Amino acid sequence: MVIEIQISVSGQGLHEITREIQRRVADAEMDAGLCTLFLRHTSASLTIQENADPSARRDLEAWLNRLVPENDPLYTHTSEGPDDMPSHIKAILTATSLTIPILQGRLALGTWQGIYLWEHRRRTGSRNLVLHLCP
Questions:
Q1: 84-93 vs 54-67: helix axis angle to the nearest 10?
Q2: What are the backbone angles phi and psi of residue 18, rounded to the nearest 5°?
Q3: CA nearest 95: which of 47, 42, 37, 130?
């Protein structure tokens, strides 16, 4: 089963999408299998990360922004603004797809794990995600 999902984002940062994905898995009534997520963009990414303490997300965002700063004079791909090239670099350092086992009708995530869409651009809008559920 393949499902296309639009995820609204309110700008740069980690946006938790665990509940949305788990809802789609539950609707599929699949006891066991695999859930593959694929993000159809080059300036955002997907990650599984701690979902208990918001400071972990803030630290990750701050660290990646220090690693890949805006306005680096070496960037030549700047036509869409100062966050454009850094967003592409951040996307290649992270991931555009994830595969998560399904056990007993639920995502087999650990106690403190959540699924995040990591928006690397400052703009608001939506991102397209393809969800593939395979028994």
A1: 110
A2: -55, -50
A3: 47
CA distance 118 to 7: 11
Decide: pTM greater than 0.90: yes
User: Between vectors from CA 95 to CA 93 and to CA 101, what angle results, nearest 5°?
Assistant: 145
- The pair of structure tokens assigned to 12 is 């740069």
Q: Which two tokens stand for residue 104?
A: 């007993």
Beta-strand pair 113-119/97-103: unpaired
pLDDT score of 11: 95
As given in the structure block, the two tokens for residue 7 are 């995820």
Q: Amino acid identity, residue 51?
A: N
**38-89 pLDDT per residue, tens:** 999 999 999 999 999 999 999 999 999 999 999 999 999 999 999 999 999 9
